[in-house]
Amino acid sequence: MSMTAAMSTDSAMAMSPTMTGMPAASSSGMSMSGMGMGGPNACKISMLWNWYTVDSCFISSTWRITSKGKFAGSCIGVICLVVVLECLRRLQREYDAYLVKQYRKRRDQVDQSMHKSSSQTPLDSDVEANDGTNKDGNRILVTPSSHDSDHQRSSKSGRLVPTVLQQVIRALIHMLQFAVAYFIMLLAMYYNGYIIICIIIGAFLGSFIFSWEGIQITGA
Q: Is the whole model's pTM more than 0.70, yes or no?
C-alpha cells in the first residue's frame, strides 16, 4: 500500500507542470493569433482605433509598412486616391454637361432649318382657304420632317436620353467611382488614425480643386 501511494504521488507531481503549462501555451497562442499572422514580424492589425505605423498592414500582407518613409508614402497615396475620386465625380458632371451642350447645338440647327423651310413656303394670301390650293390651282401640302418631329418630342419631354454608346461611357465612369470609393472604405475599416486623417485631407483637396465651379443663382 505504501509503495502504491508513493507511485501515485510521483505521477501526480510529474503531471502537474505539464497541466500548468497548458493554459499559458494556449493563452500565448491566442494572443499571437489575435495579431493576425503570428511571429515577431506579424502585421499590426486592430479592429479598434489605433495609431500603428511600422509593421502595420493594409488590404493584404504584401502592403506591409516596414519603415516610416514607406508609411509616409502610403499616406500620400491615400490622399491622392481620394483626390482621384473627386476628379471622377467632376468628370461625370462635365460629361453630362457635354451631352447637354451637344443636344442644344443640334436643337439650334433644327430650329434654323425649320426657319429656312418656313421662309420658303407660300404666303397665306396665295393659298385659298377652301381647298388648300394656290392661285395657279396647285395643291399645297406641308409635312414636318423626321428631324422636326424628334426635336418637338425632345422639347416637350424636357429630357435628354443618351445613346447606347454615351450610356456605356457614363456607366464606365460610374464603375470607376464605385471601385475607388470601395477601396477607400476598406482602408478606413482598419481604424488607423493617420489613414483616416489622410482620407479627410484628400476629400478637402479634391473638393477644393474639382468642385471650384460656378454656382447658379435662381430667383435673383
A: no
